[in-house]
Design brief:
With 349 residues, the protein is α+β, with helices and mostly antiparallel strands. The protein has two domains: 166 residues, Hypothetical protein, domain 2 (Endonuclease III, domain 1, Orthogonal Bundle), CATH 1.10.340; 114 residues, Nucleoside Triphosphate Pyrophosphohydrolase, CATH 3.90.79.10. Helices cover 41% and strands 12% of the residues. The chain has 15 helices and six strands. The strands form two sheets. It has a three-stranded mixed beta sheet with strand order 1-5-4, with helices on one face. Strands 3-2-6 form a three-stranded antiparallel beta sheet, with no helix packed on it. A hairpin with a 4-residue loop joins β4 and β5. The termini are far apart. The mean pLDDT is 94. Bound molecules: iron/sulfur cluster. Iron/sulfur cluster binds next to α9 and α13.
Length: 349
C-alpha cells in the first residue's frame, strides 16, 4: 500500500470546505443524536438533495424522538411517503419508540445496532457523528474514496471487505481518532464534492499526492462494479375511480410485505404476465365504463413494474376501501409508484 493519506490534511480541508447541512452540528457544538439518526435513515439509498425537504417536514412535525414515538403510524408513513423503501419508515417509528422508552439513544455501536432498522453502517455513523466513537462508517462516498486511495481494483461487491479494511486503515491515525465525528463527515464531504463518481476533481483534492488510484491513473474507474443482474418485469392494472363529489377510491395495503401499510388506488396483483381486459375486469372495484389513461413505469428493488391505469367516474362509489378528496391526496401515505399513477390519472378527474 502507498503511504496513508493524512487525516490531518483531510481535517484541515474539512475545516475550510465542510458542507452546511441541517442535521450537522456547527463547529464546536455537540451533534443531536435524533437529527443524526433521522438523517442517516433518510439518506439510505437517497441523495442529500432529495432528502432535504422531507427532513425539514419531518423535524417540524416530529421535533424530538419522543414526538416521533408518540405519533400515529399513519402520520409517520404520510410524512415519509415519496422517500421509498417504506419498511424503513416502519422501522424508524419502532426505533423511536424503543429509544423514547429507554430514555435516549445508546452511545455504543453494539447498543445502536440492537435497535430496529439500524444496521452496521448506521450504527457506526451515529456512534461516530453523534457520540464521537472512533470508527469509520462506510457509505457509498466513503466506499469510493477508500477504493481509490487504496487502489482496490477488484469489482464490488466482492471488494467490500478490502474497502472496509482500507476505510479502517484511514481512520487509524491520531488525528482521526481525536475527531471521529469530523473525520467521518470529512470523508462524506470529500466523496460528495471532490471525489465524485465519474469525474473526481483530483487537482483540488487534499489527498492528491497520496492517492494510489490517482498515481496509477485509474481513479475514475474505481470502484469497479460487477455487471448488474437484469430485474424481472411485473405487470399490474390500477383503477382511478372518482364520484360526483370529486372523491377517489383508495385502499390501504396489508401492514406487512411490499409497501406495507401504504395507501393506493385499488388494483390487481403485480404478476409476470401482462393483464388483458378479460383478466383485469374481475379486479375492478366496480362495474363502470373503464377507459385506459396510460402506463406508469417504476423500478422497485427487485423488479420493474408496468402499471396500466384505468379510470372511471360514477355518481356514487360502492366498493371496498375508503374515499379521499382528490385535492388532498398529498396528505395520504402514497408510495412513489402510486403518486405517479395519481399524476397520470388526475388529468382525467
Ligand atoms: S486524488 Fe482523486 S481519486 Fe484520489 S481521493 Fe482525491 S479526488 Fe479521489
Amino acid at each position: 500500500m502507498s503511504p496513508v493519506p493524512s487525516a490531518d490534511t483531510l481535517l484541515a480541508w474539512y475545516d475550510r470546505h465542510r458542507r452546511r447541512l441541517p442535521w450537522r452540528a456547527e463547529p464546536g457544538q455537540a451533534a443531536d443524536p435524533y437529527r443524526v439518526w433521522l438523517s442517516e435513515i433518510m439518506l439510505q439509498q437517497t441523495t442529500v438533495v432529495a432528502v432535504l425537504p422531507y427532513y425539514e417536514t419531518f423535524l417540524t412535525r416530529f421535533p424530538t424522538v419522543a414526538a416521533l414515538a408518540a405519533a400515529p403510524e399513519g402520520d409517520v408513513m404520510a410524512a415519509w411517503a415519496g422517500l421509498g423503501y417504506y419498511a424503513r419508515a416502519r422501522n424508524l417509528h419502532a426505533c423511536a419508540k424503543a429509544v423514547a422508552a429507554s430514555g435516549g439513544f445508546p452511545r455504543t455501536i453494539d447498543g445502536l445496532r440492537a435497535l430496529p432498522g439500524i444496521g452496521p453502517y448506521t450504527a457506526s455513523a451515529v456512534a461516530a457523528i453523534a457520540f464521537g466513537v472512533p470508527t469509520v462508517p462506510v457509505d457509498g462516498n466513503v466506499e469510493r474514496v477508500a477504493a481509490r486511495v487504496a487502489c482496490i481494483a477488484a469489482p464490488l461487491p466482492a471488494a467490500k471487505p478490502a474497502i472496509a479494511t482500507a476505510a479502517a486503515w484511514l481512520g487509524d491515525q491520531p488525528a482521526a481518532i481525536a475527531r471521529p465525528s469530523d473525520f467521518a463527515q470529512a470523508l462524506f464531504d470529500l466523496g460528495a464534492t471532490v471525489c465524485t463518481p465519474t469525474s473526481p476533481a483530483c487537482g483540488v483534492c487534499p489527498w492528491f499526492s497520496s492517492c494510489a488510484a490517482r498515481l496509477a491513473g485509474i481513479a475514475a474507474e474505481l470502484p469497479r462494479k460487477a455487471p448488474k443482474a437484469v430485474r424481472p418485469m411485473r405487470y399490474g392494472v390500477h383503477f382511478w375511480l372518482t364520484d360526483a363529489a370529486g372523491r377517489v377510491l383508495l385502499r390501504r395495503r396489508p401492514p406487512r410485505g411490499l409497501l406495507g401499510g401504504m395507501t393506493e388506488i385499488p388494483g390487481t396483483d403485480w404478476r409476470a404476465l401482462p393483464w388483458d381486459e378479460a383478466a383485469w375486469t374481475d379486479h375492478a372495484p366496480m362495474k363502470a365504463a373503464w377507459r385506459p389513461v396510460g402506463e406508469v413505469r417504476h423500478g422497485l428493488t427487485h423488479f420493474e413494474l408496468r402499471i396500466t391505469v384505468m379510470a372511471a367516474r360514477v355518481p356514487v362509489i360502492v366498493a371496498d376501501g375508503f374515499l379521499g378528496a382528490v385535492e388532498k391526496l398529498d396528505a395520504e401515505a402514497l408510495p412513489t409508484v402510486m403518486r405517479k399513477c395519481v399524476a397520470l390519472a388526475s388529468g382525467e378527474r
